Amino acid sequence: MFMTVLAAWSAVLSRLSGQDDLVIGTPTxxxxxxxxxxxxxxxxxxLALRIDLSGDPNAEQxxxxxxKTTIGAQAHQDLxxxxxxxxxxxxxxxxxTPIFQVFFAWENSDVEKLQLKDVKADSEDMKYDIVxxxxxxxxxxxxxxxxxxxxxxxxxxxxxxxxxxxGYLEAMLRWMTSGxxxxxxxxxxxxxxxxKLLLETWNATEQSYPDNTCIHxxxxxxVKSSPESVAIVHNDRTLTYRELNCRANWIAHQLVEAGIHxxxxxxxxxxxxxxxxxxxxxxxxxxxAYVPIDTKAPVDRQVYIAQDSGAxxxxxxxxxxxxxxxxxxxxxxxxxxxxxxETKDAQVGSLWSSTSAQSTAYIMYTSGSTGLPKGVMVSHCxxxxxxxxxxxxxxxxxxxxxxxxxxxxxxxxxxxxxALVNGARM
Length: 426
Known about the structure:
This protein is of the alpha/beta class and 426 residues long. The protein has helices spanning 2-17, 59-75, 81-88, 159-176, 192-201, 215-225, 241-257, 274-285, 299-309, 335-344, 380-387, 412-420, and strands spanning 21-28, 45-52, 102-107, 135-142, 145-152, 230-234, 237-240, 265-268, 289-292, 313-316, 330-332, 360-366, 374-379. The longest helix has 18 residues, at 159-176.
């Protein structure tokens, strides 16, 4: 029975850890010589049982491996564990025992009730505040039943985790005694309660969000509902939602005059700034998609993105060095145009395009698994799913969102749009 439980527990630990080479410690009485059997004293030694679970064995194969390992270890039980440590010389850590951190003890000695004259005695289980190993499984035989208990480091495990492991062990033992030829890697260890927790309770992540409208229209809804609320702060400049919308409208009209149509792609080569955000909004207003380029990226990468995307225009400013190899028209947004632009922008209305929620809003280039950047196209409804009613970050008008990410890096999507479509300040 010892070998059966040891095989089952090693299978469980293998499944949980993803390892197929396990070492489990176990005590041995070490009274294999007749002359010491009747002696009083502590002769117990610790054996390190190395269990091989490679190749995904079935029950019969695993039991045979455990049997050989156990018999081999018992044949050398006279070798003190301290000498094993000296020979192996494993890496030492103050918070771990050497060789193994999991312990399995089986006690089948008969415990007789203590009988003393004129004295009534009862046995009590000892409470342990400290465990010697990370995880211990103790088994005893009592009245024809096998009883077990777990002791564990509370720094590594909690009570619920250990209860689940006990359930896994029970499931593995049922499988091993069922006579099936199924391999240990395919044994269903999870019970119905945990299965429901994993597949239903924790998977109930569905959230409603506006999946039928464009992201710039959601921004304009905020402009209508709170036009004088602060939308963006950069250095000493502050723009309200109305002012930011006006700036975006002005840029949008410049794009139309430059020949940009719905479905086109527009490059943005700007550092984080108010105009970078306004340019993103403007590009969406005309039905196009923006393609941000890292201003500090190597020239070859900048040129590749410009050529691979097939963009029709690049938005930049006079302080930016645009590679000469990028052969598309440029739209410069200069600092000296901003103030005058904002004063006359009130007369520039919003543009309406035939863009749908499934249309591409931006293309973000990743590092690429082939060595070349790969463009990932993200739709308007994809952005909405990220920033509205997402279940983990409920941004609102009282919040402030830091635009802390490189504009060419995908998390910048949250930095910008989580603020602007939820009425927050950026």
